[in-house]
Amino acid sequence: MNAPRAILFDKDGTLVDFDRTWGPAAGAVMRRLAGADSAGLAALHAFSHYHPGEQRFLQTSPLIAGSSRQYGPGWAQALGRDADAAFFREVDRLFIEEGRRYLTPIGRPAPTLERFHALGLPLGIATNDAEGNARLQAQMLGLTDLLSAVYGHDSGYGSKPAPGMVQAFSRLTGLAPHEIALVGDTRHDLDTARGAGAIAILVRCGPSPVDDFADEADIVVDSVEELADLLLATV
Questions:
Q1: 40-46 contacts, C-beta under 8 A, 24 or more apart
Q2: How high is the pLDDT of residue 235?
Q3: What class is the 6-17+105-234 domain?
Q4: pTM of the full predicted structure?
């Protein structure tokens, strides 16, 4: 495998600590959506494979890799609401509000991404979060000036595991997909990279183990920082 000439990073579980950020944030979002409907709240927890007492998701949760457009219909059904655009917008808005309260990075993402940036690599984010929230969190983490693009599920290129975000980044950078790496922590990330013909890099710092499909990736590392060490050693 040749070294990538550009890198797209998944956000949650790759740059952002999923459990410490979205465990409490999602719990708060579900409480706000359910209000006084205790049965609805319990249904949200059950659908989401969420333990409210521990503020964490099971590894089987559809929220770990899915977008609000993917798990949103299940949430709407749990609450007896319509799974329409207004409901999805409400969910995204609440996640923006609660996500910024609990945002916790993995390591020090800004100095780490600066190391890639210093190599002249175009960098971007490809997430199943909403683009607005991804941009806000990137700004809070000090990443904005290092990024050439931020793609979310609502950016017009589809949600992962569809290959649209990688294809958009290919058009933006003028690089072929096989020159671009997608770094992530889930099967969705691996399938997105493979579907686009990109370099597939898995990190082990997410909430779910990647060992079951690690042999399908081009590179597996413990963290984005370790990936920077690896690439810099080849320069």
A1: 40/78, 40/79, 40/80, 43/78, 43/79, 44/75, 44/78, 44/79, 46/78
A2: 67
A3: alpha beta
A4: 0.89
